[in-house]
From TrEMBL, chain A:
Residues 163-228 form the HTH luxR-type domain. Gene3D superfamilies: 3.40.50.2300. Residues 234-257 are annotated as: Disordered. It holds the Pfam family Response_reg. GO terms for molecular function: DNA binding. This is Response regulator receiver protein. Keywords: DNA-binding, Phosphoprotein, Transcription, Transcription regulation. InterPro entries: CheY-like_superfamily, NreC/VraR/RcsB-like_REC, Sig_transdc_resp-reg_C-effctor, Sig_transdc_resp-reg_receiver, Tscrpt_reg_LuxR_C, WalR-like. Residues 22-137 form the Response regulatory domain. The modification 4-aspartylphosphate is found at D72. SMART domains: HTH_LUXR, REC. One of its GO terms (biological process) is phosphorelay signal transduction system.
UniProtKB/TrEMBL annotation, chain B:
GO terms for molecular function: kinase activity. Residues 361-382 are annotated as: Disordered. PANTHER family: NITRATE/NITRITE SENSOR PROTEIN NARX-RELATED, OXYGEN SENSOR HISTIDINE KINASE NREB. This is Histidine kinase.
Length: 257, 382
């Protein structure tokens, strides 16, 4: 608790303290689900839903519209990336924090590309986890070093393939910051090293994530066009409202698994 | 050399099993042919009961090998001895002039079964050796070699050599096939175990780690132990043995798997999702440089220092960044150490990278600690 308390004093978190953050928890291990829900409850979050598999995670998130969905990466029924894509397609404002037992997984990247805002390994401490939920609720991306490395690699891959003008590249500053995050530096350390504000570092990371989502969308559109599918005419089965506003949510790139 | 235990019939390739059956059938037919040949020329045989006795011995062995085939070197050595003995015995039961005229030996083509048997048992060398023994005894038997003796011996050598060679090929391809099947089965089993461990054991260990840390005291110690085991187990089940296969096939290796072993409780390896391919020589040098940098971290960065190893391939160069959270190196101290002739980080890291055509930079890290940046231009990857 001490580390969580210590970090409460930083700028940005004061605004969230007024309103109770509503959280949904999806994990197929009852033990984990209960522990996470209890921790959240004790820390003052409101746990509005729990789910044990992918389809119910999607259905309950759409029904309760929580601020944050804490999502296990490997759920039965639908995987983490599938759940993220379905929620994006359904235009749910919920932000997704991925929780995974494995630290290095291509599925983590797929989930973040599909719209997840943050990622944390299950071995992280409770204080770190609660901070991550707060950050996610506030729209601040939760980047671990491992995820930063994967995201950096993803931009390198897209550039090497010469994806065309519709795919945005990272600026030099964004690359620099991503590399710092990937070598274990916190936002504060990066801010100090680059003589910029903490907030600016956060904005850069947020922009990186935004570009990553644009990549994903561009890839989906190309995937659809290559196969003669009209992306707009193929809404997701989970699409509640306006699938066209969120891109082709029903079509996902093939992933080798 | 293969031991006879390797040659158990059950393990054998289907081609080899077929050859054994062919040898059994051939032996019987050869016996009939030998008996028929002696019967045709019974008038010119000097000592008919002797010839019949020789045939009887050959027939007895044929019956024994048909009823209960022995496919061992010892049995075929006996068969070869009987065959050669029968060939030599021809001199005792036939007139000189009959033999010189080029008459068949008493066992005729029967010893060929022993040649083929040796070819199956011992490959082309065995086939050739057995054929040479049979040829030698027929040369001894005729004294003055006839055209038949020479051509029969050549046929025997050809037969033993060719069949032996085919058996060698069949065996090696069978062994390669069996090895491939074994690898595929091992990999499938490993994947299955990895899934089980990932879904069950890892989740539980991570949970114990977390709860233990929360509870504090002795439970925290137990939790830390569970956390350590979780990390080891996860590394174990995620280890891609495919990398080893690539290593064998391609001559290239993935830097991510070459560096996997450096990851530990205090060192995090951060990699892209795609492989970074380098030749073994280059990868091994880079790995040694990273090890030297991490060794330096362990020795100088102080207790509790953490380190991150970032692999980044931007197309123009492969960059490996080793950053630690430790005390840091005062500027100039590395140069000082190198100037004093003390071989340390500077020489082993910079030297290795210079040899590869890359560069190494050691700087005081932006967040405290030290940052070692190893840069290898794309054209130096092989």
């Amino acid at each position: 608790m001490t580390s969580a308390d210590a970090r409460d004093g930083r700028p940005g978190s004061g605004a969230q303290a007024v309103r109770v953050v509503r959280v949904a928890v999806a994990d197929d291990h009852p033990m984990w689900r209960d522990a996470v829900a209890r921790d959240l409850d004790e820390a003052g979050f409101e746990v509005v839903a729990t789910a044990a598999d992918g389809p119910s995670a999607v259905a309950r998130t759409i029904a309760t519209r929580p601020d944050v969905l804490v999502l296990d990466l490997h759920l039965p029924g639908l995987t983490g990336p599938d759940v993220c894509a379905a929620l994006t397609a359904a235009a749910v404002p919920t932000r997704v924090l991925i929780l995974s037992a494995s630290g290095h997984d291509a599925d983590v990247l797929a989930a973040v590309k599909a719209g997840a805002l943050g990622y944390l390994v299950k071995s992280a401490g409770r204080g770190e986890f609660l901070d991550a939920v707060r950050d996610t609720a506030a729209g601040r991306p939760v980047f671990t070093a491992g995820l930063a490395g994967l995201v950096l690699g993803e931009f390198r891959r897209v550039r090497a393939r010469d994806a065309g003008p519709e795919v945005p590249e990272l600026t030099q500053r964004e690359t620099e910051i991503l590399r710092y995050v990937a070598t274990g530096m916190g936002y504060k350390e990066i801010a100090a090293a680059l003589f910029i504000s903490h907030r600016t570092v956060q904005n850069h990371v947020q922009n990186v994530l935004g570009k990553l989502h644009l990549h994903n969308r561009a890839e989906l559109v190309r995937y659809a066009l290559e196969r003669g599918i009209d992306p707009v005419a193929t809404p997701s089965p989970y699409a509640a409202g306006r699938p066209d506003a969120n891109g082709p949510g029903g079509i996902r790139p093939r992933r080798s698994r | 050399m293969r031991s006879t235990s390797d040659l158990l019939v059950g393990d054998e390739h289907v081609v080899v099993r077929g050859l054994w059956r062919a040898v059994d059938v051939f032996r019987c037919l050869a016996l009939c042919y030998a008996a028929w040949s002696v019967w045709l020329r019974n008038a010119e045989v000097a000592h008919l009961p002797g010839a019949i006795l020789v045939l009887a011995v050959v027939a007895a062995w044929t019956v024994a090998q048909t009823v209960r085939p022995l496919r061992t070197v010892r049995a075929y050595a006996a068969e070869l001895a009987i065959g050669c003995g029968a060939v030599l015995a021809t001199r005792l039961v036939d007139h000189d002039w009959v033999i010189t005229a080029g008459a068949k030996t008493i066992p005729s083509i029967w010893p060929t079964a022993a040649i083929v048997g040796f070819a199956i048992l011992r490959g082309w060398r065995g086939g050739l050796a057995a054929a040479a023994v049979v040829a030698a005894s027929s040369f001894v038997e005729v004294v003055h070699p006839t055209a038949n003796t020479v051509s029969n011996s050549i046929f025997g050598l050809l037969l033993g050599g060719c069949i032996g060679y085919c058996v060698d090929l069949a065996r090696s391809s069978h062994a390669a096939h069996a090895e491939a099947m074994r690898l595929a089965a091992a990999r499938a089993e490993r994947d299955r175990l990895a899934r089980t461990v990932h879904d069950g054991v890892l989740q539980t260990l991570a949970f114990i780690h977390r709860r233990g840390t929360d509870l504090g005291g002795e439970a925290a110690t137990l939790g830390a132990m569970a956390g350590e085991q979780e990390r080891i187990l996860r590394a174990l089940v995620s280890e891609p043995d495919l990398a080893e296969v690539e290593r064998a096939i391609g001559g290239e290796t993935d830097l991510r798997s070459s560096l996997r072993h450096v990851a530990s409780e205090s060192v995090q390896l951060v990699t892209p999702a795609d492989p970074i391919r380098l030749t073994h020589r280059v990868a091994d040098e880079l790995v040694s440089a990273v090890e030297a940098a991490l060794d330096n971290v362990h020795r100088h960065a102080g207790d509790g220092a953490r380190a991150w190893v970032l692999l980044d391939d931007d197309g123009a160069a492969v960059t490996v960044t080793v950053r630690d959270s430790g005390r840091g190196v005062p500027t100039g101290r590395l140069e000082e150490a190198a100037a004093e002739g003390r071989l340390g980080v500077a020489s082993s890291i910079r030297g290795r990278l210079a040899d590869l055509g890359g560069t190494a930079q050691v700087t005081a890290g932006p967040g405290g600690g030290t940052t070692v940046e190893l840069r290898l231009p794309a054209k130096r990857r092989s």
